[in-house]
């Protein structure tokens, strides 16, 4: 319980920093006044309130990626599973590019449906390819199939972009992953999908615990393995598709956070999932704050910052203890 409260405290501090820190820093007292006694004529109050939507989007996107990464590692029984490595993000990104190039989609409402369809199709293709052979979809085969699909989709994505300057101009700012420039309409558009995906993922803790014992043991305990994987995968697709549509592909959050959480919660997914949902948005929001202050008055997109932070952390985790199959 103390760890849970500490995680919530870190998340609250990250949110406070997000609304106070930027190209125009705002004093903590002014931040408090902006929420309790907002003055439209006060420039600092306006700055604080303009940062609230990107902070909220960082929270919901980070929570979605953390949950999706933890659930995906449980479904695939693979410590390297995350939306990026297993091709889900690449599928969503390629579908969005096709939507821009073929149908001229330029708004988030259109992005959502293409991203969800692309994420779902990529997940199905990876699982089908990995299932070929006598052993079925083993963790190693899933990772290899995901890496191969990601490479293929990104190659085709690049081919589309170099053939259309207009598509490139529309896509390039979304591609790097960012929570800036979004408004409440963006959040409201993706919120139903994120809420549904989060509910499915959080309720799958007991099923993931069974899957972690192996398919044969899970079946022996009366668990319907195929149904459990399918329902959890649906939650992952909803989370990844909606998060990617809103903020673009953001790497390493879904990969690193479940390993960090697992180091102090143990292997029980009933704890891993909620802790991942709280710790991942803290990382994403902090990375966004860092990106704002490194190169003022410009900003580094959060997708780049999370990769810079996440890669060394993951290397340290790998060196600190061998990551066994889940």
TrEMBL record:
One Gene Ontology cellular component annotation held by this UniProt entry: plasma membrane
Classification via Pfam families: FecCD
Signal peptide coordinates: 1-23
Keyword Transport among UniProt keywords: yes
Location(s), subcellular: Cell membrane
Ranges annotated as spanning the membrane: 55-72, 84-105, 111-130, 142-164, 184-203, 231-257, 269-290, 302-319
InterPro entries found in the cross-reference section: ABC_BtuC-like, ABC_transptr_permease_BtuC
A Gene Ontology biological process term: siderophore-iron import into cell
Top-level division of the source organism's lineage: Bacteria
Keywords: Cell membrane, Membrane, Signal, Transmembrane, Transmembrane helix, Transport
Topology within the bilayer: Multi-pass membrane protein
One GO MF term attached to the UniProt entry: transmembrane transporter activity
PANTHER family hit by this protein: FE(3+) DICITRATE TRANSPORT SYSTEM PERMEASE PROTEIN FECC-RELATED, FERRIC ENTEROBACTIN TRANSPORT SYSTEM PERMEASE PROTEIN
Similarity field: Belongs to the binding-protein-dependent transport system permease family. FecCD subfamily.
Protein name in UniProt: Iron chelate uptake ABC transporter family permease subunit
Organism: Arthrobacter zhangbolii
């Amino acid at each position: 319980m103390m760890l849970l409260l500490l995680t919530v405290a870190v998340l609250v501090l990250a949110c406070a920093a997000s609304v106070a820190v930027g190209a125009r820093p705002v004093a903590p007292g002014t931040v408090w006044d902006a929420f309790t006694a907002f003055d439209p004529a006060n420039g600092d109050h306006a700055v604080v309130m303009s940062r609230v939507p990107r902070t909220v989007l960082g929270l919901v996107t980070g929570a979605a990626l953390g949950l999706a990464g933890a659930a995906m590692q449980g479904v695939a029984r693979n410590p390297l599973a995350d939306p990026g490595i297993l091709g889900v993000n690449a599928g969503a990104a390629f579908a969005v590019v096709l939507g821009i190039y073929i149908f001229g989609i330029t708004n988030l409402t259109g992005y959502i449906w293409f991203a969800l369809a692309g994420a779902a199709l990529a997940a199905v293709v990876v699982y089908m390819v990995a299932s070929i052979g006598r052993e079925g979809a083993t963790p190693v085969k899933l990772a290899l199939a995901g890496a191969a699909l990601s490479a293929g989709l990104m190659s085709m994505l690049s081919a589309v972009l170099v053939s259309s300057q207009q598509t490139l101009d529309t896509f390039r700012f979304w591609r790097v992953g960012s929570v800036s420039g979004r408004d409440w309409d963006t959040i409201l558009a993706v919120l139903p999908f994120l809420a549904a995906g989060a509910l499915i993922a959080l309720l799958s803790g007991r099923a993931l615990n069974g899957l972690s014992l192996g398919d044969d043991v899970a079946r022996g305990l009366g668990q319907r393995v195929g149904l459990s994987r399918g329902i959890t995968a649906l939650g992952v697709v909803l989370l990844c598709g909606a998060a990617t549509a809103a903020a673009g592909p953001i790497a390493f959050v879904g990969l690193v956070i479940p390993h960090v959480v697992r180091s102090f919660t143990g292997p029980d997914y009933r704890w891993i999932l909620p802790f991942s949902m709280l710790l991942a948005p803290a990382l994403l929001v902090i990375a966004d704050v860092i990106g704002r202050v490194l190169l003022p008055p410009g900003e580094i997109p959060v997708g780049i910052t999370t990769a810079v932070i996440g890669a060394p952390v993951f290397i340290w985790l790998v060196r600190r203890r061998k990551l066994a199959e889940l």
